[in-house]
């Protein structure tokens, strides 16, 4: 019984160390950026969501839409939504935004990218983990929350 408890304790400690190391690893890197004017497609892992590629049903989320004719109003709303959802805006250029979100427990860093498409009046979102495989739905939840904060722009 004592050996079993020791083994369980060692496994728990190893898992916590592994998660801490992954959290530190996620601090390097960054958002992939635009490719041919669009957000990057998600990798095969389930820790990413993107509104650009409807054909990728595992990672797809419909884009947000807006009605305003003033793009400055839409940009302001995107900045406010990122801030309200706990993101740190790192970069803004024209109609493209990059932000990061950091988890509390192990400090995992996720990247969020937003692209405003003026022709279709859509706001495209990509949210992805930098490390690991599963995110327990955190990126889908974040993108959905951002969409709801942008509703009615």
TrEMBL record:
Taxonomy, superkingdom: Bacteria
Name under which the protein is recorded: DUF1499 domain-containing protein
